[in-house]
Amino acid sequence: MKRYLYIIVALLTLSVPACAKVDVKEIIFDHLQDSYEWHIAGDVALPLPCIVYDGEKGLDVFLSDKLEGGEVYNGYHIDEESGKIVNEAGVRPVDLSITKNVMEIFIVCFIVCFVILYVANWYKKNGYKKAPGGFVAMMEVLINFLDKDVVEASVGHEYKRFSPYLITVFLFILTCNLVGLVPIFPGGANLTGNIAVALTLAVTAWVATNFFAPRSYFKEIFWPEVPMFLKAPVPLMPTIEFIGVFTKPFSLTVRLFANIMAGHIIILSLTSIIFITWEVGPAIGAPMTLVSVAFCIFMNCLELLVAFLQAYVFTILTANYIGLAHAH
Amino acid sequence: MNLLTPDIGLVFWMLLCFVIVFTILAKFGLPVILSSISKRKQFIEQSLVAAEQANEKLAGIEEEGKRILADAHSQQQDIIAGAMAERQQIVNTAEAQAAESAHRIAEESARNIQVAKENALREVKNEVASLALDIAEKVLREKMTDDKAQQEAIAKMLDNI
């Protein structure tokens, strides 16, 4: 007991070296946003190619370390406020840079393609009479579950046309979510928690719902079977239905993006507790570190569940929208 | 808020990547997997039906085997019974034959004995007769001297023979 007291007293007398105050808000927002370089650890960062096109200057391709620390390259610099590349006049050029998130998307694409092609190759090699084991069996269970219990159950008899798309969406979102939970280098980007990624996925879902729908679906929108006064002379129901066409992908976007972003914010906040409390002093910093680690473990487990859940919810809702479009 | 404005570059790359991944998976990945799964499902169902049929057949064959076995058993019983009867019959016949033959042999020997006895008796008679003649001759030679007596004696003898 005495020894512990000594340690605590010794810790209390320690003074934390004066360093810049931890700005939790900045840390978290830095992580949530995209960036032109991939920060790995400490001062080490992987520069990524910037691809910008401006009407006057034409196409420019350069590495992001040319803009590091507010430097200017060919008139381009990173705007302090938005963190995006702007030209001299502060106007955004067409920016197709391979940012951290884009790089992470490439990695996710590679993982998804590799896994599925690997499994498909197993079937090509072994034929259908042999039952797979290990990883292939796990993927088979997952894909079969998606195909039968999610896609077929929601879409109905025309499910075969849509099951490749829906399974791809599930695997893509799941991989993005899981990769986002990996805290070290080739992972950790806030992909599905980025509104651009979630929006793009929702747009593909919208295309899958509306572009392949039968004529009855559009009749149901513009001339639904409701009492006459609800659709003419004031097209009340058609307006509501028409708005509904766009609120569906919007809800998909917000649900996915907000859920995953919230998870990232919570984990980062919990981690920040360590730095904030150590700033106050080691006596409070040490115990709070343990608390923070415990909470982080719990949240990471929860986020694993959320990763699956959000991928599942996105897929099953999209499948339901498609199923509703084909219902009549 | 920066977090809520989608970045065009990211949307572009995301869309491109997603379409590429979707194309690859939809063309080379998922159809293979899904068709393999459904084929295997069908295969398993067919195999189950086939196994059921085979089982039924097997049960039929077993019953058939049992029936054949029972048939064979009863036939065996029949054959054994037949053989027993035949054996009995053979034994009976043999016994009868043996008895008959024994009877015949006994009869024959009895007859032979009879014949031999008669022959012996005849010989004895002849012997006795010749002995008697001899004796008579001797007696006659001695007593021929007395004619009368002799005549009487001869007559007596003749009577007695």
Instruction: Catalogue the unreliable spans of chain B.
Output: none
Report the average pLDDT across residues of chain B. Answer: 89
User: Which percent band covers the strand fraction of chain B?
Assistant: under 5%
Major sheet of chain B, described briefly? none
Radius of gyration of CA atoms of chain B, rounded to a whole number: 64 Å
Q: What composes the largest sheet of chain A? A: 3 strands, antiparallel
Quaternary form: heterodimer
Shape summary of chain A: globular
Element-by-element helix/strand order of chain A: HHEEEEEEEHHHHHHH
Order of helices and strands of chain B: HH
* Beginning-to-end CA distance, first to last residue of chain B: 183 Å
Helical fraction of chain A: 55-70%
Determine the mean pLDDT of chain A: 88
Distance between the termini of chain A: 76 Å
Individual helix count of chain A: 9
Category by helix and strand content of chain A: mainly alpha
| Rg of chain A, Cα atoms, Å | 25 Å
Task: Give the strand order, joined by hyphens, for the main sheet of chain A.
Answer: 4-3-7
General description of the model:
The complex is a heterodimer of chains A (328) and B (161). By secondary structure, chain A is mostly helical. Helices cover 63% and strands 8% of the residues of chain A. Chain A has helices at 2-13, 24-32, 100-126, 134-155, 159-181, 195-210, 215-222, 236-280, 282-325, and strands at residues 37-41, 44-47, 49-54, 58-63, 77-78, 85-86, 94-95. Chain A has a three-stranded antiparallel beta sheet, with no helix packed on it. Chain A has a two-stranded antiparallel ribbon with strand order 1-2. In chain A, a hairpin with a 6-residue loop joins β5 (77-78) and β6 (85-86). Chain A is globular. The relative contact order of chain A is 0.11. The mean pLDDT of chain A is 88. With 161 residues, chain B is mainly alpha-helical. Chain B is built from two helices and no strands. Chain B has helices at 8-143, 147-160. The mean pLDDT of chain B is 89. Classes of the chains: A mainly alpha (328), B mainly alpha (161). The A-B interface holds A 29, 32-34, 51, 82-84, 94-99, 101-102, 105-106, 108-109, 112-113, 116-117, 119-120, 123-124, 127-129, 131, 139-140, 143-144, 147, 163-165, 167-168, 171-172, 194-197, 199-201, 203-204, 261 and B 2-15, 17-18, 20-22, 24-26, 28-37, 39-40, 43.
